[in-house]
Amino acid sequence: MYWLLLLLLSPVHSVHTNNWVVIVDASRYWFNYRHVANALSLYYSVKRLGIPDSHIILMLADDMACNPRNPTSAQIFNNRDRHVQIYPDNVEVDYRDSEVTVENFFRVLTDRLPDSTPKSKRLMSDESSNILVYLTGHGGNGFLKFQDTEEMNALELSDVFQQMHQKKRYNELLFMIDTCQAGSMALPIYSPNIIGVGSSTVGEDSLSHHGDHEIGVYVIDRFTYYTLDFLEKITPSSRATLADLFRVYDNADIRSTPQYSNLRLFTRPVNKVLITDFFGSVRQTVVLRENVVKLNVTEEVVVEKSVKEVDETVYKMVPPLPF
C-alpha cells in the first residue's frame, strides 16, 4: 500500500534544469577495442541528442585510434560496415591513458579535484542536474577492472554516490554499466533517485556482438549495441521512456539478463522517465536579437526560437549510426 501511494504521489515530469554525462572506458590493450568503441558510440549518441562537450566527461583508458595495429589509422568504428567514424577530429577526451584511474573517476563524481583542474575536466553539476554515468570494461561479482592494474569495488561506488547525494550534486542519476556480472555493481546502491542498469546479472558474462575481420577484433558489445540501436531512433523531442528502452533488452539478443536496481528509491516510475531526461539536453527558449533589412530600412526585431528547433537541426546534420 505504501509503494502504491508513493507511486500516485510521485512527480511525472523531471524538474532538472541541466544534463551531464560521464562516460568511462576502463580497459586498455588492443583486444579491448570494443570497450573504447562502446564508450565513443554513447558519446556520439548523447552529442547528437543535444548534450554539448562542456557537459560530457569522457574517460578513455587507451588510444585505439593511434594503435599501430589499427589498419584504419586515426579512426574507430563500431560496425563492420564502417558507415560512421566515431572518433572524429572534434572529439574531446577529458581523461586518457594513465589518467583513467579509480581515484580520478571518484574525484570527478565528488568534485574533489585539485584547484588547478580546468572546468573542462570537472563535473560541474548541482541539485538540479540529471546525470548519466556509463561504464564499460571487464568486471566480475562486485568489481570493475581499471587499466588491468586496479579494481573499483561496488561498495566504494555506492558510497561515492551517497557523497554526491549529500553534496547535492544531482537531481536524478542513471547508472549504466556494460561488463560481466554488471548488475552486481549497482546492488549496493542505497542513495535516492538513482537507477542502476547492468548488462548482465550476477554469475553471467556480457558478450560482444560482432567483429571486423580486417581490424581483427570485436567492435562492440551486445548490450551497448542494442542500447544504441534504440537511441538512434530517438529525436530530441521524443516521448520515449526508460521503460521503452528496457523492453528492447531481449535476453535472446543480448545473451545475458539485464538487471535493474534501486527502482524503489527512485521517485518516478520508469514509464514516466523520458529517455531525453538523461540522454538528451534540457530545451529552453532562447531569445535572439536580429537585424532585419527590409525596403532599405533597418529594424531591430526580437526573434524567439526554441532550443528544440536548434536540436532538431543538429539532429539532421549528424548522420545516424548504422544499426
Task: Tell me what the structure shows.
With 323 residues, the protein is of the alpha/beta class. The chain has one domain: 3-Layer(aba) Sandwich (Rossmann fold). The chain contains 9 helices and 14 strands. It has helices at 2-9, 33-48, 102-110, 154-166, 222-231, 242-248, 251-254, 276-279, 307-317, and strands at residues 18-25, 56-60, 95-96, 129-136, 139-140, 143-146, 150-153, 172-178, 194-198, 208-212, 217-221, 259-261, 285-294, 297-306. A hairpin with a 3-residue loop joins strand 6 and strand 7. The protein is globular, with a radius of gyration of 20 Å. 43% of the residues are buried. Residues 1-9 and 294-317 have low confidence and may be disordered.
Descriptive keywords:
3-stranded antiparallel beta sheet, about 325 residues, Rossmann fold, 9 helices, alpha/beta, 7-stranded mixed beta sheet, about 25% helix, disordered N terminus
Task: Report the helical percentage.
Answer: 25-40%
Radius of gyration: 20 Å
CATH class: Alpha Beta
Strand order of the largest sheet: 3-2-1-4-8-9-12
Terminus-to-terminus distance: 43 Å
